[in-house]
Specification:
It is built from eight helices and twelve strands. The chain is of the alpha+beta class and 319 residues long.
Length: 319
């Protein structure tokens, strides 16, 4: 039997504002991530998740209490947390003898699970181990994916889509060169994804193009792919659908070339050339021979039908 849920209407202005903020919008807000600690999670994998939380700040929420959750058996508690805190993305940590130092990354669609990938964290180095200048909070990172697997292997293509959704921030139209300070590198090789974080420095080169140097700032970890749970093609296609109001309407007969110039195609109807007013020239005037033929034709028409000849002669005079 279906479970009936009691609908509680908000009684305060703050409650109404929270409910309106959770309703669907044409332009959705920036996706936030919720970080959940498992009841059996080790300190090793919790520190790794905490460093990833520092990268996501302020677009993230970390829960302090531990929770008894097994995502690949029952993901309902995670879906409930995502709906409660309005976070479509989540990370979850766990640890057991068979799968040590587990880090689960996933996302939801309409408060139900869409994708979920389980990684094993290896060779982790925290941000504190790198004695360099740190990156400011809220910097939009550059995501770099190295390896042919991200283009050829279907599993890695879906994982790449999940990682882009996890670590990207708001979309921008213009890019400022000095704002490119942080690089997140993902390298796929032998069933692992090597996550590295770099700080970008611009040095003088004597030309207009500066010299770019990368300094590793952490965190650094190797992610071994374990279990995966991806959405079906129909559900994934439905999650990527855009509202009709946001779709660009195609303009007929208008194209843009490679240089950005707008070209238009104009359809011109059939023109009556005989009625076009042209300049009067001597070469277009009738010669004496043509005038004699016209007079002869008038005489023949007048002998056959005098009334019709009179009308035709009047027309010829008007011409």
């Amino acid at each position: 039997m279906p479970v009936l849920q009691r609908i509680v209407k908000p009684t305060s202005h703050k409650g109404k504002k929270i409910i309106l903020n959770k309703e669907p919008k044409l332009v959705e807000d920036l996706k936030e991530t919720i970080f959940i600690k498992g009841n059996t999670a080790s300190q090793y994998v919790n520190d790794a998740m905490k460093d990833l939380y520092t990268i996501k700040k302020p677009d993230g929420l970390i829960l302090k209490k531990k929770n008894q959750i097994i995502p690949f058996e029952d993901v309902t508690p995670i879906e409930r947390f995502c709906q409660k805190h309005n976070c479509p993305l989540f990370m979850f940590t766990s640890n057991n003898k068979k799968r040590p130092h587990n880090l689960v990354m996933g996302r939801t669609f309409e408060h139900t699970l869409l994708d979920m990938v389980e990684f094993g964290v290896e060779n982790f180095k925290s941000v504190q181990e790198f004695k360099v200048e740190k990156i400011a909070t809220g910097i939009k990172p550059i995501l770099v994916f190295n390896g042919d697997d991200f283009e050829c292997n279907q599993q890695y293509v879906k994982i790449k889509n999940l990682l882009v959704d996890m670590f990207q921030r708001e979309s921008t139209q213009n890019i400022r060169l000095q704002g490119l300070e942080h690089v997140l590198s993902f390298t796929a090789n032998d069933g692992k994804i090597y996550l590295r974080s770099y700080k970008v420095s611009f040095k003088k080169s004597g030309t207009r193009i500066p010299k770019v140097e990368l300094t590793e700032v952490g965190p650094s970890m190797d992610l071994q792919i374990r279990r995966t749970k991806f959405a079906s093609d129909d559900l994934f296609k439905q999650s990527c659908r855009k509202p009709k109001q946001l779709k660009e309407k195609k303009k007929k007969n208008i194209t843009v070339d490679g240089q950005g110039s707008v070209l238009a195609t104009i359809h011109v109807g059939a023109q009556n050339i005989r009625n076009i007013q042209t300049k009067r020239m001597k070469g277009l005037k009738r010669h004496s021979l043509e005038n004699k033929k016209v007079e002869k034709r008038k005489a023949e028409d007048s002998s056959e039908n005098p009334k019709q000849a009179k009308i035709s002669s009047d027309k010829m005079d008007n011409e």
